[in-house]
Each structure stands twice: as structure tokens, then as C-alpha cells.
Amino acid sequence: MVNSLFASTDDWDNQLESTGQGWPGFFRTLRIYLTHFRGQRSAIMQFVAPVPGTEADAWEALTAALGVKGLSLGQRWTAPAGVPALSGVAEYVSESPYDALQRLDKPGPGVAALGAFNFGGQSMIAMNFYHYGDQAAGTVARETPLWQAWIQERFPNANGTET
After folding, report:
1. Per-residue CA distances from 55 to 39, 61, 101, 113, 122 (Å)
2. 56-109, pLDDT tens digit by residue?
3. Residue 106, H or E segment
4. Whose CB has fewer CB within 10 Å in the chain, the N or C terminal residue?
5. Rounded Cα distance, 85 and 106, in Å
6. How far is C-alpha 94 from the chain's CA centre?
7. 56 near 121, Cβ under 8 Å?
8. b/e sequence 77-106, b meaning 16+ C-beta within 10 Å
């Protein structure tokens, strides 16, 4: 794996280090894909929202809202009422950095990558939903407005949360 960067500021070392820290999560997602969904079509939904407080506060707010707080590896879960249909199995959980991967069976086969991080002094939550199979694009089209509404209600400081 080679990582390079063109930067327009003197902060290039920190930018390169931050970029490098993101790769392990993508490789874990790739492992889940190759193990469970190899060769299937994919579609993605990505959301990022600011959350008041620290990264720990953001992680607490996200995991509590989704019903994954304290989840153990291999444990099945279903999101609580008020959250768009979401259920699956915990594949990875970390609090250093704040990161989790859930292999999904609802709303369809896929992976939910959850995280909390600091961006320029602002705590943020991130949710990336990778949907797989012939229905993946339809799942994303159907679920995106539901998640946008949920994020706006749960994290009202979010403006234009889909990336």
C-alpha cells in the first residue's frame, strides 16, 4: 500500500498521518466484503454530522442512538424504535479510535461503518453504509431520505449531512 499527498499548507505531515489512520477501517470492510459478499454489486450511503462535545461524547451519542453501545464482537443486534430499519452482527468495535463495523442483514445485506472523530476542533460522527447485491442501488435510493431525516432530527446541527 502506497499513500501520497499533495498539500497546499505546511500541515502536510498531520494530513498524511490522518489519511494513513483511515486505511485499516477500509481494509476491515474489504475483508468483510470478500468473506460474505464477494462479487456482488455495491452502493454506498455516507453521512457525516457535527456533534457537540468531545469525540467520546459523539461516540456515546451515536452508539446509544443506534443501539450498538457496549456491543460485543459476534453479537446480533437490532436498532431501537425510531431508527430506520437496521440489524446485523458486530464485526469490529474499537474506542481507540472510535470505530465499529456491523455486518448488516437489514435493510439489506451490507456493512455499516460507524465512527467518531475530531475535524478541525469539531467532534463529528460518520456513518458509511455499504449495501451489496442486485438490490443495493434500490436500497440506497429508498433508505437515504430516511437516514437524512433521522440524522437531522437526532443531530440537529447537521447541515447537508450526506457526502
Report:
1. 36, 10, 18, 16, 9
2. 999 999 999 999 998 888 999 999 999 999 999 999 988 878 999 999 999 999
3. strand 98-106
4. N
5. 6
6. 13
7. no
8. bebeeeebebebbbbbbeeeebbbbbbbee
